[in-house]
Structure formats: structure tokens, C-alpha cells
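Just scan my protein:

——
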Amino acid sequence: MAVVHIQDENRQITDPDAIREFLEPFGIWYERWDVEGRLGAEATNDEILATYEPEIDRLKQRGGFVTADVINVSPETPGLDAMLEKFNKEHTHSDDEVRFTVKGSGVFHIHPSNGPVFGVQVESGDLINVPAGVRHWFDLCSDRTIRCIRLFVDP
């Protein structure tokens, strides 16, 4: 389950409803999807997309997304350090960044224009949408493993 860390306020939020309420003014969506018993540990990317097709279709309608894929990152990923170096620097995107975590964990650090910098630690079952133009960066947690469904506006 996600945890929001607001370092400047020495505060953390763990309740899913309170997380949604905190993130909403920043235009960030947070959802918790059921993962229990839906997939085996070694499910293929196609199996993951098929399993979550109803949720993906709902998000496509909500956000105008066209495509979805699965990204797999682990300590064995070739060029992992170079990839992480790109993600862990503050940046923005021209499209929303939508991620549903199937496996693993990481932290989206958000630097909004209208509030304090905060981190959203996500794990299996957490969906987050960082809106286009919002400054942020991403760090993997210590096991350096994450498997996510990504949604895109441009195919």
C-alpha cells in the first residue's frame, strides 16, 4: 500500500482515502487495485495486460490513453544504472505519467508548484498518475525491482 512522505512537515500518510485527498489538489490520481490471486509471479506481459484489461480500459476512457505496455526492471536489467540515472533527476513530461505497480516498489518524488515536495512510495497494487508538466523524479527501492503497467496518449 502506498505511503506519502512529506519531509518538510515530518508527516506521512498511509490511509488510501487520505492519500487520495492529499494528492487531488495536485491533480494526481491514486488508486488501489486488487492484486491478490490475480496473477502468478512469472506472468507474461500479455497475461498482465489481459488480467487488468477492465481497469486499463477505464483509464483509457478517463484520460484519453491509447496504448498500454508493461515495463520490467530488476537488478539484472542491462544498463540499469544508466536508466535509473535518467529517472532520478527532476524532470517533467509532456504527457501524464501513469503507472500501475504489479510487483516491486519505488518512490515518485513530486515537486509541485503549489505545495511542498513529497514522496509517494508505491508497491504492488498501487496506481499513480503524475500529470503532464509536474516536476518529479523516481527512485527504485532497495531491491531495485519494479514491474509496472504504463499507459500512453501517443501510441
Remarks:
- The first strand starts at residue 3 and ends at 6.
- The beta strands are 3-6, 11-13, 29-32, 67-73, 97-111, 118-123, 126-130, 135-140, 146-152.
